[in-house]
Each structure stands twice: as C-alpha cells, then as structure tokens.
Specification:
By secondary structure, this protein is α+β, with helices and mostly antiparallel strands. The protein is built from three helices and three strands, in the order αββαβα. Helix content is 47%, strand content 19%. A hairpin with a 5-residue loop joins strand 1 and strand 2.
Length: 74
Amino acid sequence: MITLEDIARAHTGWTIWRSDVGRWWATRRGPVDFEALRSGFAMTVDADDAESLAAELVAQARLAAESTSGSASS
C-alpha cells in the first residue's frame, strides 16, 4: 500500500494531500508556463486513491523528462 508520505518523498516538486472526503490531490510547487500547460503539464492532479495519484505523477514526470530531452536535442 502506498502512503501519502511515500508519494511526497518520490515527488518532491509537488504538495500532496487528501481531501476531507478522501480524494487524493497533488499541486506543483512552482509555476507552469502556458506552453507547458498546452503540452499536457498539469498544475494540479487528483485521483481516487494513492496508487492512481502516484501513476498520475509518474506520467507528469515522464512528460517533463520528454520535454527536457526534446529541448536539449533541438
């Protein structure tokens, strides 16, 4: 079982929390420019459970890595 602390440790650029109704949320700790938003970056993501939130954050990390590697090769 993944805990809130596990997710926070793995994704330090995000603030992680659970709402009072049990939904899981993460918000970036820095700005996201308009072009990044257009390419799929999210300022905030949410999920029904910890595993789904962790998967959303992994997807955001992959997007960031692809964006960085794409700009480095341009």
